[in-house]
Amino acid sequence: MAIPIAILDCDLLLHGRGHKTLDRFDLDSVPDNLLLTQFGFPREFILYLVEILREALCRRTQRSRAISPEVQVLAALGFYTSGSFQTSMGDTIGISQASMSRCVSNVTRALVEKAPTFITLNRDPSSTEQSFQEFQRVAGFPGVLGVLDCVQVTIKAPNSEDSSYVNKKGFHSVGCQLVCDARGLLLSAETHWPGGLRDTEVLERSALQKHLQDAEEGWLLGDRRYPLRKWLMTPMDCPESPEELQYNLAHTATHEIVDRTFRAIQTRFRCLDGSKGYLQYSPERSSSILLACCVLHNASLQSGLDAWTLERTDPLEQPESLEQRPEDRDSLAEELRKDLILKHFS
């Protein structure tokens, strides 16, 4: 029994008793370039995170040997941006791998609590008008509130024989329904969906649809996997006129923003990059980590950092068209799209 006790409490062996907080890593003495390379963000943003999360992190570590909020934030950023609890990362900030794991859990919960503050569709009229203008400057598509997509993040197979997390490509994942604005700021991020659900099923069950189905002005843009609705404009399946073709071109150029945004998020937060491996956690915890990274993305963008600085340049996957039954078609939405094409793309 002595060995596991020593492993679990190796911080005590390294640093001894009597510490109220374990400030092993002096943030002020670390060069700026090391913070960027090891933790993915500049000093000013890291200090900002520490301040907004301090209360929650201190609340969760009210022990005689609590790890300081600064060290907890650095540990979590190191994991999010590298994707692993590497021994070298723990050595850098002076904590064990077990403590790294606890820090990531604490910071993830604290960031998830902040999600309603940083990710919201509730906008005042002036913000809505600004959104319309910013999107129209992209490719001339009017009335756009946001661009919609559902993405997959690879996770390990759940312990139970639950096939609901097996997506159409045959691997386990959680689905994340995203909406962003023209700058790449996330307006909605629902990260808890089983990967086996189709995008349309996610939308039908989501808080997003309930929020927007009675919208009086504007619409989201979605790709061919989604149904056409008054509040959700999709491409024409077979454009037959120059106007319809121009509509599709503008739609594609504008909708691409959400794809670029998620590629940038995956590149910055490599724990989400399926090409580097998968999240080694339950679907619930994986969903929380994904949402925490979405909060960090918005917080960094609102702090003046570039959303797409680290964007990958992978080719975009072409979506399959939704096979819609005649009774599911929305005739009012079809008329609205026809009028939109005639008015703005002719």
TrEMBL record:
One of its GO terms (cellular component) is cytoplasm. Pfam families: DDE_Tnp_4. GO terms for molecular function: hydrolase activity; metal ion binding; nuclease activity. It is found in: Cytoplasm; Nucleus. Keywords: Cytoplasm, Hydrolase, Metal-binding, Nuclease, Nucleus. The keyword Hydrolase applies. Its cofactor is a divalent metal cation. Signal peptide: none annotated. InterPro entries: HARBI1-like, HARBI1_animal, HARBI1_dom. Transposase-derived protein that may have nuclease activity. Does not have transposase activity. Belongs to the HARBI1 family. This is Putative nuclease HARBI1.
